[in-house]
Each structure stands twice: as C-alpha cells, then as structure tokens.
Amino acid sequence: MGNDRPRVLIIGGGFGGLFCARRLGGVDVDVTLLDRAACHVFQPLLYQCATGTLSIGQISRSLREELAPHPNVTTLLGEAIKLDPEARRVTARRPDESMYELDYDYLVIAAGMRQSYFGKEEFAAWAPGMKTLDDALSIRRRVFAAFEIAETLPPGPERDEWLTFAVAGAGPTGVELAGQIRELATRALANEFHSIDPEEARVLLFDGGDRVLKSFAPALTDRAARELARLGVEMHFGVHVSDVRRDGVTVSSKDGGPDRDYATRTVLWTAGVEAVPFARHAAEVLGAKTDRSGRISVDADLSVPGHSEVFVIGDLAGRDGLPGVAENAMQGGLHVAGCIKRDLGRSARKDFRYRDLGSAAYISRGHALLQAGPIKLTGLIGWLGWGFIHIAFLTGVRNRFSTIATWMASIARANRSDRTFILGGSGHPEEPYTWQSAVHQGHHASRENSRRDQNAG
Ligand SMILES: Cc1cc2nc3c(=O)[nH]c(=O)nc-3n(C[C@H](O)[C@H](O)[C@H](O)COP(=O)(O)OP(=O)(O)OC[C@H]3O[C@@H](n4cnc5c(N)ncnc54)[C@H](O)[C@@H]3O)c2cc1C
Prior knowledge:
This protein is α/β, with parallel strands linked by helices. The chain folds into two domains: 7-36 and 78-115 and 274-344, 3-Layer(bba) Sandwich (FAD/NAD(P)-binding domain); 121-271 and 358-438, FAD/NAD(P)-binding domain, CATH 3.50.50. The chain has helices at 15-24, 46-50, 63-67, 133-151, 157-162, 172-188, 218-231, 277-286, 326-344, 379-393, 397-412, 438-456; strands at residues 7-11, 30-35, 39-41, 60-62, 73-77, 79-84, 89-93, 99-103, 106-109, 113-115, 164-168, 202-207, 233-237, 239-245, 248-253, 260-263, 266-269, 273-275, 296-297, 303-304, 307-312, 317-318, 359-364, 367-372, 375-377. A six-stranded mixed sheet has the order 5-2-1-9-21-20. Strands 13-12-11-17 form a four-stranded parallel sheet. The chain has a three-stranded antiparallel sheet with strand order 6-7-8. A hairpin with a 5-residue loop joins strand 7 (89-93) and strand 8. The longest helix has 19 residues, at 133-151. It is globular, with a radius of gyration of 22 Å. The structure holds flavin-adenine dinucleotide. Flavin-adenine dinucleotide is lined by residues 11-17, 34-37, 43-44, 46, 79-80, 110-112, 130-131, 172-173, 276, 278, 314-316, 324-327, 329. Flavin-adenine dinucleotide binds at residues 11-17, 34-37, 43-44, 46, 79-80, 110-112, 130-131, 172-173, 276, 278, 314-316, 324-327, 329.
C-alpha cells in the first residue's frame, strides 16, 4: 500500500466478499478483505460436516491461500466492530481482544446473517444453530455423543431422551439435518452398538408452516415429505418451539392448541436468521433503513442511500427480490467490483440485476430437489444435479476432488469418515470434559460480547 490507489475494504469472505475480492484482483485498487474467521466456508455443505460425511477442511479454504494469486488483495483476520462513516474508518478486533483500524475509500459490507433465536438468546446454549464451522463441529459432537451416552445407559426414559433429536425449522438446513440423522442411525451406526439399537432413534422436525421446504414448488415438497416420512422423520407443522431446556423442548401450536413437551437431549436450531451485529451497527451510523431481520436497504446499484462509497451485498442486502442464497451473494460481489471499476473509468454504474439460476435441496441418499425456472426435478436425477452444482461451486480444486471421492466411498459403503468429535482436554479447567461443548458455550458468550459491543458502539 502507501500509494494513491483507492482502498477497497471488504468485510466478510463468504460468497459475496470472496467473489468481489477475486474480481478486483489485478485492478488498480488496494483491496483488504477482513474476515473474523480468515477462511471461506461453503455453508451449503455444513450439515455434511456436522453429520460426519465431510471434514471441515473439505468445505472451507483459507482466504489467504485462495487470494494469494492477487498481489493487490490483502487478507486480514479480525472482526469489524465499529464504523465511522465520516472518517471512512472501520475498527476491527483481533481474537486476543486488541483493536486495529482500517481506512477505506470504498466499503463493501458482506458480513452475512447469523442464526436468530427470535429474542430467546438463552436457547443458543442448548440448541446450536448452523452457520459456522464451530456450529457444525458442535452439532457433530452432540449427535455422535448422544448415541455414545445412550449406549452406556440401561433401557428407560433417560436413554430414550438421548436417542431423541429435535430439529426446529423445516427449511433446507432443517430437512437436511433431520434426514441425515435418520440415515446415520439406520445405515452408518446401525450395526456398531451392542446395547442400543440406533435405528430406534427418533428425529422430530418442527415448523410453523404447513409443509417442508416452503421455497420450493408444492409438488416437489410433497415428494420430499414422503421421502422424509419413509426415512422415519416425524414431522410436526403449524407449531413453534417455544422453550428449549437441557433435557427437552416445549412446542406450542399456532392454532391455540395445548403446548406439548418432548424429552430430548439434542436440539438443533435452524428456524430463523438475523443480521450480524456489525451490520446493525453499520446501518445505524449510516442512517440506513433495515427490515425486521436487519437487512440493510440498498439502492439499485447495491450502494447505501446517501453513501455511494458503501455497498451491501449478499444475505445482508435488503432489496425486493433478492433471496438469501449463495448465487445472489456471488452475483452481488461481481456487480460491486464492476461498479468500482466503472467509477475508476469514470463511466456510469449499472443497476444490479439478480438472475435466478434455481435452487436445490438434499433430502437423502439418492434424493434431492432441483428447481430452475420450469425445470423441476426430484429423486435420483435431482440428486445428481444437486451434486454437480455443489461440486462446481466448492472452493479449491483439491476440495472438489476429495469431496467427490468421499461421496463415492460413502455411497459404496455406509460408513462416514469424519465422525471424530472433541470433548475437552484432560485436566484442563478451561476445557472441561463435557458434551456441553465449549464451542457452543463460546458461541453463546460471543453473542453476549456482540451485544455488548453493539451497545458500546
Ligand atoms: C447451513 C446452510 C445451508 C445453505 N444452503 C444453501 C444452498 O444449498 N444453496 C444456496 O444457494 N444457499 C445456501 N445457503 C445460503 C448461502 O450460504 C448464503 O446465502 C451465502 O453464504 C451468503 O453469502 P454472504 O457473502 O452474504 O455471507 P456469508 O457466506 O455468510 O459470509 C459472511 C462472512 O462474513 C464474516 N463476518 C461476519 N461478521 C463479520 C465481522 N463483524 N467482521 C468480519 N467478518 C465478519 C463471516 O466470517 C463470513 O465469512 C445456506 C446457508 C446455510 C447457513
């Protein structure tokens, strides 16, 4: 750095931030990509990591390694916590709690969404969400440890609690998790235990709507529901999970019927999303409007009204017709890079036009939904299409080959190669030996920290 080239600061190395940074590689600007995790995570395959099919290395890639071919792009580890739009400066926090500052000429906010507990933050301690690698590992620990703990117990209600899994939210992630736990129980784990019969594991899927996968056409979701029922997933619609405890959930009916308690030691939460804390703070100091989930209203070129130097892309961009999917983030990243190049060339910016290339959802081995315009596929053909799309967008050639190899091995044999979970260090007071993972407690603590930062900011 240290020259007069415009400085572009991108917050977040997900689909939006990474595609923007890549497109600005080689352009006459200095790009800094700041990410709190320093790696790009392929979120659509997080559930396969959580249920032991893939490793975290197969679904993620170091941003530094990914962007090494672009000398004008710097990647930095840190969490953006404060924005000063007048000074055009962002304050970032290192993981050791110390701070540093980054100045910009252009700011691209691509920090994504996080799991929402609809104001019931205390649920997070017992019901991990599914947004980060930490979440995936936390879920892996809880699911596999539940079977292991059940094996040590005599038959009875306590053992049954460990063999009952509750999933809140029947969108793609909830459906994928529910289906995978039943597949795990009936295939990979079926013949490995001596005391319990893993096939008896109950998987309960709760949703406030009237069907699974609401964003797909009803004909497709009917097929998905039949397949889930065949797998043994118990679906409950028109309900919301109104309480989560160490040993169970309460489910309330939306039509005013009586509440019902279910005894379970594993609750997974995929029910809603909200803007990350930095985005809420940024909207406030920029004077930008937000929707209920905290998405920031943007102009047609994806810049914030009144701040043509600040863009918002991906899941955080609040504009009609922009869905929270990877394709929107990738296209937004490329569009903003194009706007910056046009500014440098002194030509007018173009409006962002999102092109819907379709969506896909995995149901079970050999079954997936694929919907692209008039094309609607289910079953094996949908599954092959789903696999092709996911491999095409997975970051890193090595990850693509190793994921294909792992999938082929797990089709040929029932086993799952990445079941290892961590239960804490031996004799370490800071890492107690517990199924109640330090990871998910850390997640809870970090939500508290975020709120504290926000209030302080
Ligand atoms: C489990 C799951 C499954 C999904 N499946 C699909 C699918 O099948 N198909 C599909 O199209 N979409 C899917 N999605 C949605 C898709 O992943 C998102 O739409 C997409 O990732 C959004 O990209 P983004 O760049 O806006 O944000 P993200 O990809 O979420 O990236 C945000 C980045 O910002 C970083 N960050 C956050 N806060 C800060 C901060 N304060 N400072 C610095 N860095 C920060 C994070 O570390 C992260 O790297 C799925 C999402 C999830 C969670």
